[in-house]
Design brief:
The complex is a heterodimer of chains A (about 375) and B (about 240).
Chain A lengths: L1 H16 L1 H20 L8 E7 L4 H12 L3 E7 L3 H9 L4 E5 L3 H6 L6 E5 L4 H22 L23 H32 L1 H7 L4 H29 L9 H25 L3 H19 L11 H7 L3 H15 L7 H26 L1
Parallel strand pairs in A: 1-2, 1-3
Antiparallel strand pairs in A: 3-4
Helix pairs in contact in A: 1-9, 2-7, 2-9, 7-9, 7-10, 7-11, 7-13, 9-10, 10-13, 10-14, 13-14
Chain B lengths: L2 E12 L2 E12 L3 E6 L5 H8 L7 E6 L2 E2 L4 H6 L1 E4 L11 H11 L4 H15 L14 H12 L6 E5 L7 H16 L3 E5 L3 H6 L2 E6 L2 E6 L1 H8 L4 H9 L1
Parallel strand pairs in B: 3-8, 3-9, 6-7, 7-8
Antiparallel strand pairs in B: 1-2, 1-4, 4-5, 9-10
Helix pairs in contact in B: 3-4, 5-6, 8-9
Classes of the chains: A alpha/beta (about 375), B alpha/beta (about 240).
Chain lengths: ~375, ~240
């Protein structure tokens, strides 16, 4: 036990004396969460739009007023003809144009379909989609309130309710994602690098010749990163709660337990990577290309898994992050109990077991 | 004399390839034993078996009184090891390194303190004790690594090309440390590519293609092969 403590102490010396790893450990999580929180947002605010109102009647004017009154849109220009639409977009400021047909109000009164067109700048498809949705929801609201007496069947809007994230805040989306990515990065990449560093420098040989058991060496290397990852997870949760008002509906203790499980899964991946690579460079490349990219792209963090092509959907299943994100969302947003994420938990446990068994086997081969 | 290493038909094969083929030799207590051979002759593989990190495919060796085949843990406790790569932690200072390595060999903090003071004094490193090992010249690092390998007073020290890349003066000083340890009864098992260093050894063995082709004192070997230097003995055998 004393040997073990000495080992862990030595590991902390390594971490705290290496500015680079300190930065990755503590700078990165904070930078990432702030970046994602403030810069990369799917929400829209004060988007400049233009209108082409050929009707210029009561209803069309009211709709335009409604658009202007919402905090999402700013009606910048009133266009006079279709020809001006393209020009307006080319100037680049305007993201959408709403046009009303000539007999807009009359058609409404006569219970006929009245035509309104939304044209969006789809150079950024995500934003274009969001804008369309927002305008639609404003229209639906308007038709409910103002046209009660003569609601035309065509104008009956769909009412959608966004469960668990009523305001469609993107924070809710990215906090679980960023937390996953950071825990993965810290645990897997940092451990694999720190183990391969010992191999590269030659100290691993000395440790193997010493009476320390290989398992002590590995556990000793990993324990500091468990601590640091837990600190990181806590920092992320605190930041998201206090800076971004992210609610945590479910149980904190489950959140902690599942996070520790995921940290251990990532650590075992890190150990596996270190058995496969002999230099820090290789370990870093494998971690970055083989772990970080799939984790970001295929875990459902940024791109919904349901809309991926089938082969990618299948591949996404072997990515631990996917399951952890599901667990996190269940706990943080839905507030459901273990009954709802025991399957994902089992999958993570199984993955950890597989990673560790392969590592131990590889390790033994090397020693034999 | 007391025997500290005794190899009996020590063999290691990887598939069809026999890297080390039936080694038989003995090393006595306090002896400086040079273990020579061209690259790829099987030196490193043989050494790995002797220090307990690789299991023999056949045969066995008794090192410091324990069998490497099934008492590797006890072997490890009673030997010291220093490899050709410099093997202290660069980002720890001298004291922290000594505390760490003393600790993993199970020394208590009191005796670590005593040994630390002795090492620093012997090597004249008082002024550098708080500096990270990174900033020390290579020669000092090697000497320090050797002292660290001796911390737990092992019966045998294995040195794997300990003086690679070191200037002749420092090499000379390094060998003085080796002599000192040997005089105090520590057995030294050393591999090297420098033939002048081989001359310093009490006895040397030369491995060629997995087998020991020559084993005796440098003097006898030179006579036997009718040449004036160990270099020529080596070249004659290795060809």
């Amino acid at each position: 036990m004393k040997k073990f403590i000495g080992f862990v102490q030595k590991e902390f010396y390594h971490i705290f004396r290496d500015k680079r790893s300190l930065f990755i450990l503590f700078g990165m999580p904070i930078a990432q969460i702030l970046l994602f929180g403030f810069a990369i947002s799917n929400e829209i605010n004060n988007v400049d739009i233009a209108v082409l109102n050929k009707a210029d009647d009561k209803n069309s004017i009211e709709i335009i007023e409604n658009l202007q009154a919402s905090k999402y849109f700013n009606v910048l220009e009133e266009l006079q003809s279709e020809k001006e639409i393209e020009k307006a977009f080319q100037k680049g400021k305007i993201k959408a144009v709403v046009t009303f047909e000539k007999d807009f109000a009359k058609n409404l009164q006569r219970l006929q379909a009245s035509k309104l067109q939304i044209i969006t700048d789809a150079t950024n498809p995500n934003i274009a989609n969001t804008i369309t949705n927002y305008i639609n929801s404003i229209l639906t609201k308007y038709s409910h309130i103002s046209l009660k007496q003569n609601t035309s069947p065509e104008l009956v809007g769909t009412e959608s309710r966004m469960l668990f994230n009523p305001a469609l805040e993107s924070v809710y989306m990215f906090v679980p994602g960023v937390m996953t990515v950071i825990l993965m990065l810290v645990s897997a990449m940092m451990t694999s690098i720190s183990i391969t560093r010992e191999k590269e420098v030659g100290t691993m040989e000395i440790l193997l010749v010493s009476p320390l058991k290989p398992i002590t060496v590995i556990v000793g290397k990993v324990v500091p990163y468990i601590f640091l990852s837990i600190i990181n997870a806590t920092v992320i949760v605190l930041l998201s709660v206090f800076v971004f008002q992210m609610p945590i509906v479910g149980s904190l203790s489950w959140l902690a337990l599942e996070s520790i499980l995921f940290i251990i899964t990532s650590l075992s991946l890190g150990i596996l990577i270190s058995t496969l690579s002999s230099t820090q460079q290789t370990a870093m490349m494998i971690s970055l290309m083989g772990l970080m990219l799939p984790t970001i792209l295929l875990s459902g963090f940024i791109f919904p898994i349901e809309s991926m092509p089938l082969p990618l959907q299948v591949i996404s299943n072997i990515i631990p992050a996917k399951w952890f994100i599901i667990i996190l969302k269940s706990i943080m947003l839905k507030g459901v109990g273990f009954g709802f994420f025991w399957k994902e938990t089992l999958i993570l446990l199984f993955m950890t077991f597989v990673f560790l068994s392969i590592s131990i086997k590889k390790y033994k081969i090397r020693l034999a | 004399m007391e025997t500290t290493i005794k190899a009996t038909n020590l063999t290691k094969s990887f598939g069809d390839f026999t890297a080390v083929d039936k080694l038989n030799f003995e090393v006595e207590k306090g002896e400086i034993f040079g273990f020579l051979g061209a690259n790829g002759a099987g030196k490193t593989t043989a050494m790995k078996m002797l220090i307990g990190i690789s299991k023999p495919s056949a045969g066995d060796a008794v090192v410091a009184g324990y069998q490497v085949s099934n008492q590797a843990e006890l072997v490890k406790k009673n030997i010291g090891y220093m490899s050709q790569k410099f093997a202290l932690y660069d980002d720890l200072n001298i004291k922290e390194n000594i505390q760490f390595f003393g600790g993993i060999y199970g020394l208590d903090s009191k005796s670590i303190e005593v040994k630390y003071n002795r090492v620093v004094e012997n090597l004249g490193l008082q002024d550098y004790a708080k500096q990270l090992v990174r900033s020390l010249p290579l020669g000092w690092k090697q000497k320090l690594a050797f002292s660290v390998a001796l911390l737990h007073q092992p019966k045998i020290v294995f040195l794997d090309e300990p003086t690679g890349g070191v200037d002749p003066v420092t090499r000379r000083q390094f060998w003085e440390l080796i002599y000192e340890a040997a005089n105090q009864g520590t057995t030294i098992f050393v591999t090297t590519h420098y033939m002048d260093e081989a001359e310093y050894c009490d006895r040397i063995s030369i491995m060629v293609e997995g087998e020991i082709k020559a084993l005796d004192t440098p003097k006898v070997l030179k006579k036997e092969f009718g040449v004036s230097s160990l270099n020529d003995v080596f070249l004659k055998l290795a060809r």
